[in-house]
Design goal:
71 residues; mainly alpha; 69% helix; globular
Length: 71
Amino acid sequence: GVAKDEVEAAKWLRKAAEQGYATAQCNLGVVLMEGWWGVAKNEVEAAKWFRKAVEQGVVEAQGALDQLGVL
């Protein structure tokens, strides 16, 4: 199999999010909110990505914004 590389995974997730892929935007928000995969925890940036995902209809992203306490 392939070795797990979470840092590389985070890079590709960010690239997908930047290209407008809604699920990636939501998932990147989670990674940023939790500080996973070698990514520094950043709730402000997480909220930005959750908002972008919400704009594209990702319901889970709204729940994550609520969890952050962001309007």
